[in-house]
Write a structure and sequence with these properties.
heterodimer, A: mainly alpha, about 0% strand, globular, B: mainly alpha, two-stranded antiparallel sheet, 6 helices, 2 strands, flat
């Protein structure tokens, strides 16, 4: 049963937030004139905007709803999902940022499949990358949409379909009308709300449960594994999450496509450090709510939760003042909607631009119009998907994340830094990542086969995809290295 | 150099798969950290001293966590091993991000190299 927040302060914050999103959508509508505006914000972003927007789009409903739930359920294990952000953002900037941004100076690059096509040539790498994006977007978007529904049901006391109609109506409006421009400026607004919310929640979480030492003592008495360094899922599961999410950050299309939107490559300088630090602030909510709620339940001060995903909503309504709860609920919505907006944009680009170019070598006429139509269709499909999905939001988030990481890291992130990488290696690694992710996930759900010792499916697929990419590239020879276009070679050598 | 680093990434990735299958989690952790640091080195164009420091810190912190795993003594409000995770593993990689920022103008993207790239390959000039 989802708890209901009936406080006027919470309602006012959430409704005020939704109105601001709507207003930013209206503002961006007038500034979106072509596909470049719609997909890469006209390459107009400064460092601060890009940094906060990247953080906001990566910190999703998975972080604000699923994360505290996972901590409540399995203890510190889930910290190994959010803590890799510091190495992950650094890898993003070091391996991908400069190369992507320089290529965007020499070529008309709006999407990741554009990057793959420029780097490797041929149709297959572009087509497979676009297919991976569409499949990943469907899985990940479903979780975001479901999370929008969960939060709005709690706040507005309406049914799930009605909540989806309201939340997705506003999300749809600003995404369809203003494209990524509306998305990015909403991300900035949302990023500030998320930081404010996280700092406030840390204060109230520690206060309500008697401080960090008291929480630790209670949880250690309950189960030392829970508050130990690896959590209940054990060291191999924790470390496989660290590897997946450490390397996987640079495989998240909603994060790295922000590099294409940056106005000037020189503004990359402080981005990794700032984004990592901001993300750390937002992760405090993830960690503190889960630990505090479990400690309160163990002491009998709080009834056990019916499901782990209720940790955040129940904590906010029972242990924070209404105004703080309102800001945090707005922050929850902000986290979810900023990620969903980015995925809608990427999915629409794959459907309208990348797949048609891969199949026909031409772009669609009236690309901007069809991009808006595709965005709307994807939104509706994801709502249907969400209504019929019963699993935990967080676990589905891992599935989507793993698909992107395994499919994108080898060909894009390694491939932009290794001249010997070949199109055959890229195509093979994307294909292997898709097959492994879906086959292993399916086998695990139907209890046919589960990877032993808590090894994560996404991590396994990412490692296998890396091995395949490097070995196939070695086998398929040095000729492609010799044939690299001059601008691509220059961007890789600079 | 990039061929050697990519070879190292291949070895670490393959080793991690094998170690995971054998449930040798500490070895898996070391392979994972080596893989992350080698990936950073690939982006930096070589294994810089700062990256060696990051790898050594990873090894020290992971070893500390394995060693202190069952100690209930609290450090800054958390069990000792968990404190190494929260106050060590979490923020430590920002050292590499700081190194990137400090080296940016001198070796990552010097102005003269960027100007040359733009002059030879740029489609348009961005506004400063």
């Amino acid at each position: 049963m989802i708890p209901l927040a009936q406080s006027p302060a919470i309602l006012a914050c959430v409704i005020g937030y939704l109105i601001c999103c709507f207003g930013i959508g209206l503002w961006a509508l007038r500034r979106t004139r072509d596909s470049a505006d719609f997909f890469v914000a006209g390459r107009s972003l400064g460092m601060a905007v890009m940094t906060i927007a990247t953080m906001a789009s990566i910190m999703s409903g998975f972080g604000f709803v699923g994360g505290p739930g996972l901590v409540y359920e399995s203890g510190t294990s889930s910290l190994w999902i959010t803590f890799p952000a510091t190495i992950g953002f650094t890898l993003c900037w070091v391996l991908v940022g400069k190369r992507l941004r320089l290529l965007a100076e020499s070529r008309e690059i709006l999407t990741l499949p554009d990057v793959v096509a420029v780097r490797y040539g041929g149709r297959w790498p572009r087509f497979l990358m676009a297919a991976a994006l569409v499949l990943g977007v469907v899985g990940y978007l479903g979780t975001q949409v479901l999370a929008v529904g969960v939060v709005l049901v709690a706040v507005l006391d309406v049914s799930l379909p009605a909540a989806l109609l309201i939340g997705l109506g506003i999300l749809g409006f600003y995404t369809v009308a203003g494209g990524i421009l509306a998305g990015v400026y909403n991300d900035v607004f949302q990023g500030f709300i998320m930081m404010l919310a996280s700092a406030a929640v840390l204060y109230y979480a520690l206060g309500s449960a008697g401080g960090l030492a008291h929480i630790s003592t209670t949880l250690w008495a309950m189960d030392p594994e829970f508050i130990g360094p690896w959590g209940r899922r054990g060291p191999l599961a924790a470390l496989s999450w660290y590897l997946l999410f450490g390397l996987g950050w640079m495989g998240q299309p909603h994060g790295i496509t922000k590099f294409l939107m940056l106005k000037d490559p020189r503004r990359l300088q402080w981005g990794a450090l700032l984004t990592g630090m901001i993300y750390m602030i937002c992760s405090l909510l993830w960690m503190s709510i889960g630990l505090a709620m479990r400690a309160l339940v163990e002491r009998g001060a709080q009834a056990p939760l019916a499901q782990p995903d209720l940790a955040a909503p129940v904590f906010l309504m029972h242990y924070t003042p209404p105004l703080v709860a309102g800001v945090v609920f707005a922050g929850l919505l902000a986290a979810i909607m900023s990620t969903a907006n980015s995925f809608l944009n990427i999915g629409a680009a794959a459907v309208v631009r990348d797949i048609p170019i891969a199949l026909t070598r031409r772009t669609l006429r009236r690309e901007l119009f069809w991009s808006r139509v595709a965005t709307l269709v994807l939104l509706l499909l994801s709502a249907v998907f969400a209504l019929y999905m019963e699993n935990l939001v967080a676990l589905l988030g891992v599935f989507g994340w793993g698909t992107f990481a395994a499919a994108i890291v080898p060909p894009v992130c390694i491939g932009l830094n290794w001249k010997r990488a070949t199109g055959a290696g890229a195509a093979a690694s994307v294909a292997v990542s898709l097959v492994l992710n879906f086959a292993l996930e399916l086998a695990s759900r139907h209890k046919v086969y589960t990877l032993p010792y808590g090894m994560n499916v996404g991590c396994f697929s990412l490692l296998a995809s890396l091995v395949v990419f490097i070995m196939v590239s070695w086998w398929t020879g040095r000729e492609e290295e010799v044939r690299l276009p001059a601008d691509v070679r220059a961007a890789m050598e600079l | 150099m990039s061929d050697r680093l990519t070879g190292g990434i291949l070895v670490c990735a393959a080793a991690a798969l094998v170690l995971a299958r054998l449930n040798l989690w500490f070895g898996f952790g070391l392979a994972a950290c080596a893989l992350l640091v080698l990936s950073l080195a690939l982006g930096f164009g070589g294994l810089r001293p700062a990256l060696v420091v990051v790898f050594v810190l990873y090894v020290v912190l992971l070893s500390g966590m394995a060693w202190l795993g069952h100690t209930s003594r609290l450090v800054l409000g958390l069990p000792a091993a968990t404190a190494l995770l929260v106050y060590g593993i979490w923020p430590m990689p920002l050292l590499a991000a700081l190194y990137y920022a400090l080296q940016f103008r001198s070796s990552i993207l010097p102005d003269e190299k960027l100007e040359r790239f733009l002059a030879e390959h740029g489609r348009r000039r961005f506004r400063d």
